[in-house]
Amino acid sequence: QVQLVESGGGLVQPGGSLRLSCAASGSIFSIGAMGWYRQAPGKQRDLVAEITSGGSTNYADSVKGRFTASRDNASRTLWLQMNSLKPVDTAVYYCNAQITTRALWRDDYWGQGTQVTVSS
Description:
Blueprint lengths: L2 E5 L2 E3 L5 E8 L2 E12 L6 E6 L5 E3 L7 E6 L4 E6 L8 E11 L4 E5 L3 E5 L2
Parallel strand pairs: 2-11
Antiparallel strand pairs: 1-3, 3-8, 4-5, 4-9, 5-6, 7-8, 9-10, 9-11
């Protein structure tokens, strides 16, 4: 019954910007840490950014200074603002969250992914 729905992906030119959203819904009691991961074809899924429930963030070195993760606990929404995009940023981006359900069961949840393509 818990879902993470991602949106905002698309095609953008190098140097452009894109903002991804991830909305959590369902029988949720609370949400702990959340994060963004990405996976390029033939590559493993790597952490892009993580953010605690209090808003503390950590970023992969490759995106530091260009990407910004944020969240609103009231709306249960996670964002990733991506600026100065590079072709190497091309990947499927996945939202992740540690969620405690109303049944007090804590699990790791993933969105279905949204494609980001950076190309001329």
